[in-house]
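Deliverable D4.2, example record:
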Amino acid sequence: IEKTAVKMHPHFDFTEPKKFAGSICRKGRRIFNDALSYLEECGVDTKDAVQMLYVLKCMGPRVFEDTLNPSAKNGTAPAGESLAIPNDIFTKTLEQVDIWTPYFNSSEVRQKLSGRRVLLASTDVHEHGLLLIDNLLQQAGCHAVNIGAEKNPDEVVLAGVRYGAEIIFISTHNGMALEYARNVLDEMEEQNVSIPVCMGGVLNQNTEEGTVPVEVSSDLERLGIGIVTDLRRLPECAASLLATLQ
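Output generated by the structure prediction step:
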């Protein structure tokens, strides 16, 4: 790959990528310095890596962005900078929202889902799938509460109870789908609650041998978990799970 890259390098114009990288780095350095100052003022030992990791994880990306990105907070950007720099994945996620909105906003889908209370959560750092589902369920008339990424099973169940969720949608991409589902169900049993669960994303599970994760959709279905691998089936899957409440 390196040899090929060296040969191809003279034939590519990297002006725009370098301009993009420069903008990201300038903004990143400013946010980095603002973050350290802010955390120090709050009493955080910024030289303690474990403490920093714990605090940042508790804050989460949304609070961090809202608190420490002046552009996002004030709605203005310094001269020569854009207010926001969307990445490819985010842009393509919004494109998918546009593609699927007519279907989820149709009378057929709204009849199944309108007015239903749903909770959304991700098992890991991947949040774009969650953003897509959040937007589409709102188009279908759902009252959606998105608690974001990196949520533990106990947090999901407690939030489901707190918000009176009729169904929980979980997005997963970290090779822990089956273990996570079992932990959610165990937590529900411990809390003496029962809320239907629907999972989507990459439905696989890491193995003890450390080999390639195995597909676990059938195992999840045997646990009573709804499975969504195609957005067109999401309303039907949700309606089927919601019917168990009646």
